[in-house]
C-alpha cells in the first residue's frame, strides 16, 4: 500500500523517466529506432527497474495514467530529436501498452490528443501489445486496433510465441509487426530446433505481410543466425542495453 501511494505521487511529481533501447537493421547495423522503457527515479531508493513497479501499476490501475505519460513522453522526445537531428528523421519509437490502457474506453482519444500535442508523425510510433492481451475482448480489441492502424500508427505483438496458442486468430488482428520473444532467440544457437521455429515465424510473418523484430540478441552467433534467416530488425544487449536520453541522443548524433 505504501508503494502504491508512492507510485501515485511519482506519476504526479515526475519521478518517472524513460530509457531507450536502440533497435537496429540486422544487416546494415543501422539504427532504426528505440523502444521506450519506463524507470522510476525514486528520491531515496534511486532508479527502480520497471519489473518492480509495473505489476503493481497494473493491479492498481495506475498503469493507465503511467502508460499515458510514457506515451506522451516518448512521442515528445522522438519529435524533439527529429526536429534537431537529420539522422533522427526516420527513427521510430516503440511504446509498451498495457491491457488496461488498451481496454479503457478513452484510449483512442488519449492517443489522438497525444499525437496532436506532440505533432509526431503517426508512422514513426509503434505500439507494443502482448499476445496475451489479444485473448480477451477479441471483437472490441480488433476494432480498437483497426482504428489505430487507420491512423497509420504501427502495431507490434510483443513477446510473440509465448502467450497465444491459436495461430488461426493472427490474421484477424490488424497488427503489422511481430516481435519474436527473447526465449526463442536465446536458444537459437543451442541447437537446430529454435532456428527452425524462428524460420517458421519469419515465413508466417511474410505470408501475413508483417515485419519481424528479434528481441534479446546477446551473442554474435545469435546475430549470425538471424542474419541468415533474413530477420530484418533486432535489439538486445549485444547492441546496447536501454540507454538514458543523453546516451540515446549521442547514438543518434554518432549516426549522422
Ligand atoms: O527494461 P525492462 O526491465 O524495463 O522491462 C521489464 C518489463 O517492464 C518488460 O516486460 C517491459 O515490457 C515492461 N515495461 C517497461 N516499460 C513499460 C511501460 O512503459 N509500460 C508497460 N506497460 N510496460 C513496460
Ligand atoms: O517485455 P518487453 O519485450 O517489453 O521487455 C523488454 C525487456 O527486455 C526490458 O527489461 C529490457 O531491458 C530487456 N532486454 C532487452 N534486451 C535484452 C537482452 O539482450 N537480454 C535480456 N536478458 N534482456 C533484454
Ligand atoms: Mn516491449
Ligand atoms: Na518482450
Automatic annotation (TrEMBL):
Q: Give the organism, scientific name.
A: Hyella patelloides LEGE 07179
User: Which residue numbers delimit the EAL domain?
Assistant: 1-256
Protein name according to UniProt: Diguanylate cyclase (GGDEF) domain-containing protein
Which ranges does the record mark as transmembrane?
none
Q: Which residues of the full protein are shown?
A: 352 to 607 of 612
What highest taxon heads this organism's lineage?
A: Bacteria
